[in-house]
Amino acid sequence: MPDSDATQLLASAHLILTRKPYAHGTHPALPKPPRRAKPFAVVIFGASGDLTKRKLVPGVFGLFKEKALPDQFEVIGFARREKSDESFREEMEEGTKKFSRFAPIDAAEWKAFSQHVSYHVGNFDEAEAYQSLKLRLEKLRQSHGIEQFLFYLATAPEFFYEVVSQLNKVGLVGPDNENSRVVIEKPFGHDFKSAKELVTSLQTVIDESNLYRIDHYLGKETVQNLIYFRFANSIYEPIWNRALIDHVQITVAEAEGVGTRGGYYDGVGAVRDMVQNHLMQLLTITAMEPPGSLNSEAIRDEKVKVLRSISTPTPEDVARIAVRAQYEGYRSSDRVDPNSKTETYVGLKLLIDNWRWAGVPFYLRTGKALTKRASEIVVVFRRPPLALFKTQDNCEQLHRNRLHIRLQPDEGIHLRFNAKVPGKSAMGAVDMDFAYKSKFGSYSPEAYERLLHDFIVGDSTLFTRADEVLEAWRIVDAITSGWAQAPVGLYRGGSWGPSESDALLEKDGNGWIDL
Amino acid sequence: MPDSDATQLLASAHLILTRKPYAHGTHPALPKPPRRAKPFAVVIFGASGDLTKRKLVPGVFGLFKEKALPDQFEVIGFARREKSDESFREEMEEGTKKFSRFAPIDAAEWKAFSQHVSYHVGNFDEAEAYQSLKLRLEKLRQSHGIEQFLFYLATAPEFFYEVVSQLNKVGLVGPDNENSRVVIEKPFGHDFKSAKELVTSLQTVIDESNLYRIDHYLGKETVQNLIYFRFANSIYEPIWNRALIDHVQITVAEAEGVGTRGGYYDGVGAVRDMVQNHLMQLLTITAMEPPGSLNSEAIRDEKVKVLRSISTPTPEDVARIAVRAQYEGYRSSDRVDPNSKTETYVGLKLLIDNWRWAGVPFYLRTGKALTKRASEIVVVFRRPPLALFKTQDNCEQLHRNRLHIRLQPDEGIHLRFNAKVPGKSAMGAVDMDFAYKSKFGSYSPEAYERLLHDFIVGDSTLFTRADEVLEAWRIVDAITSGWAQAPVGLYRGGSWGPSESDALLEKDGNGWIDL
User: In this structure, what is the dihedral angle of CA atoms B410, B437, B380, B475, given to the nearest 10 degrees?
Assistant: First the structure.
């Protein structure tokens, strides 16, 4: 799509988004959401799918075990297949026993929990099913005092609008309905245009503030650790800017190839599958200004400001700043086009044109079949003035200070600085390290459990707002259309990607740092 | 002494010091001193003393072993007692075998070294002895091409002027003699006036640039590590100022009491014995502006600027900013006055009135018979704005970031910052640590060996310049005279000092950090 179209669409999206500024939360007006939920019913659409028994019901069960739920709550599976409450409970029991982090499950405990689980049969486009669902929820309101209705769309994206508009028709969700929330899972469109259509159509039937877009890849802890690290310490913020930072490297590397997901992945590729959401999340959290509060709208306001400061690259820009490649053997993977041009690796240089970051390259890379699984943000500081050490033996060995924020595996912080080598007029790079695990012990939060809890209590910090999604697509669209005619490079599986990606940094006198 | 006197004296000292600005090294003019020495002869005055056989000759031997000496060098002991070269060598062999870090000593190696060792008999005030010394050195010049004459005064301070003026009379040292250097050891006076007299009298017979005042307590490595740490890294300098640092704590704690040194220590006390030199050294290196080069004059210029920015405290100031105390039992120590008012502990708050530090307290403490032996500089940063975390469970637990520069024991760097406690909306203080030993292995430099080498090659960085000595005395004098009428507190041996010292920091809302 031409840039001007995108700009126009964004402008109108912005209008829609700001239609009800106070309703969806200008921060000073919003109280902190209570951490313990009010009575609720959650309806899971697509309840026959894998996600429900692997993640969602075990997740709610986990919250139940942790006593994070109110006394009154209901979990209602919604799907096409005829099924009794009892047989749905049995399926869920089987799934929970297998996938819960609390397995093995105590029978009495399951029994207590399962009293809250039931099933509602219906097609997604069947108006009557929604009518009967509404009656059912009305009864819960009367019998159990449940006022809060949550809808989890564990469905394919093409049903998002259908389900929400049906819910809207029977009055279960709507722009003025404060007690309803809907979760959808990515992908949120496959380009700017489709994402925009989805945003626009959904916003006719539900208020943006009640629409939760899950991005569970990062996990709540990692994002929060990053925010705390930046803003709960006074020593980092003053050096977090163009005057002192040389460049930033963000890597999300996977060791696995495409495996059995070729059918989904081919035609999508790394930039849409990973950069548009996960890497942009990391970029914006790293680069954002300090928010006015930890309120989700305040944080998301700052994140989207970062994206708005990244100008849309022209096709000529793309040739200079973006590298794509496929690992050798990708085309012979199951359900992959033998002539596929889909990239499994992307290397990218983005500039954020604001006061804090102008001129500081943010290098992003992500790929499959790389050396190892690792997600890491490396902040490389400028070299100190060398004049002082020019008479020393190894002035050229004055390393740039580096701060590594390690997300996966083994989350932690790592600082590299220079120290004198004892007994010599020479310097050496030395390291300090902090691992969350070593201080706080092993902590394996179940990502879905945390996100479900946030959804239940109405904390949207970790969910992606429409304007973020669209701004990210604006940038990603420009890259994919810039690539349209260009060939796709190759790289060896198990390597760190194609040499063109190294060259991207070498042009600036930099290089990817081995993780 | 009244403040105005001191000011006047300092002004005249400044004139003397700047008399020959280019001769004693305006930095751009000075080339880097060669690290390998030119042929030299070193004459040790007071060669019968312990220091010579324990430290000095073993130190020169160490440099010989390390091949850090030129082929032509001579070590000449100078003392009153009649002695042959041979018997002096035997004494030195005995000392070296016992105290050298290279013990056991290879006989052949000692033999080769001892060819360079000889003895010269004479009284310090005996003109003829200097005449004959001159002849002897003249011969060395002719026979061995030795042009560089070094004089090490391992004598009591009262002989400093006598020896140097005798050397001056025979032309061995003098304001225009570039090839002679003299080392003296502390104490450099016992107050401003005596220090000033010593400076002034010595400067009539030797140029300041050739007078080396040894302060070996800190050791070359520690001071250099500190300088490298501050200026070889780009992340510390931008946060090293009043905008970001709350206060600085400098501790030099000794676990031992006065022991057998009561005769020397009593009447001197902690402020003269430790603050005037060691703690002021640490203070100035921590607080100084980046020097223009690593040249010794450049560094000493910056250090003395820090001292000049500390205003002379009035007696009323002293009552507020200085605490003195004696450990219980001190007065019954060997050779200590039973009514002694000598302090064995001092706690002090100093302010540096310049752009970088105005308003940032520097808390200094040193004492004997404390909890443990530890020298450490702790830089405490300001708290970040709390607003962001005010809705969190433990906002008050937002620790101030701290950087610990550990000098003794186990030299290293330690950084404390805040991190999110996994799974909770809470923060915890976490630590990163770097130990020189763990990176570079154990390194035990022989302090004297390093300092002798610097003396031989003419690197005066680690020696104290006259203006530094005097500026430090200016401050220390004000404190001791402010104390004249005040009682001396008591503290329990093995504690961290008197409660008055804690109160000194509590007034500012701070507290000593346990080391």
Answer: 60
